[in-house]
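quick one, 208 residues, struct below
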Amino acid sequence: MNSKLIRILSTIIGTVIFIVILVMVFRIIGSRASNFQPTNVTITDIMENSAKVTWETGDATLGAIKYGTTQNSLNFYAPETNKDLTKNHSVDLTLLSPESTYFFEIQIGDKLYTNADGSAWSFTTKSKGGGQSTIPTAGPTPTAASTTPTVTPIQTLQISPTPVAGGGSACGSTDCDSIKANLGKGCTVTDLVRNNCLAGETTPTTAP
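---
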């Protein structure tokens, strides 16, 4: 066989073998990378100044949280405190500000992982004081005001009979017209009753 042909065949075979090995390496690396993909990411124990982030991975590893107050400025870094490789991960974020929104990504090795839509995860801390409301203390039960009106005794005005010309008084008159003419001048309604003026002037009426 021609030596030149042998060299060509050797080169082709070597290239094929190299490509096959390279593909296998990428598959292995890709498989391991997918096993590091965070799943079941959960934010719990959210307080005024702290929160806890937990997640899971297919392979045991260690990770960290990069976080900040905007998606483009994840300037803070919080690694896992566990020294052993694990599939169940937990990181406590502290020294946070109350009533503030934080964004974070999970770093494993030199790769940053985000949410399924490519954005960072986020959460908002509680307001100062924990948002607790003050329950007012119940005061005494108001007493309903009495609906019964207070009756003030009416004083009876005693009017002395007014003398008329010729002696006597108008109130002593038995004539109804004379009494009517003198009302306000010494006679009272009682005089009218006594003289039948309020009873049709026909039937005598007995005053109380």
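The longest strand covers residues 51-61.
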